[in-house]
Design brief:
alpha+beta; disordered N terminus; WYL domain-containing protein; SH3 type barrels; single chain; 2 helices; 97 residues; WYL_dom
Length: 97
């Protein structure tokens, strides 16, 4: 999927980082920090590695080092009813609940 696909179709959630820089959106990071610090749940808008978007409600979130050097969070996902791990750079939006 190219960058023009995101522009042509507003229903596709575009990545929040550039392919070259892979920088995490600081507002996402700050919100995750606050949620972890205060032990709050979050709702995230997430795009998987295939570019498919979803909204997830996560509980008991924490930073994870389960994978390579990229940054991840882990927590209990209401949708899947199990603990899941999410790459922070693929989180487009986060809301503390």
């Amino acid at each position: 999927m190219g960058i023009l696909d995101y522009w042509k179709n507003p229903n596709i959630v575009a990545p929040i980082y550039s392919a070259q820089l892979k920088k995490v959106d600081l507002s996402v990071r700050d919100t995750l920090d606050e949620a972890i610090r205060t032990n709050r749940s979050v709702i995230i808008t997430y795009q998987n590695f295939k570019g498919e978007g979803s909204e997830r409600t996560l509980h008991q979130i924490r930073y994870s080092d389960d994978f390579d050097k990229d940054e991840y969070i882990a927590g209990f996902c209401e949708l899947r009813k199990e603990n899941r791990t999410f790459k922070i750079a693929r989180i487009a939006k986060v809301e503390i609940i």
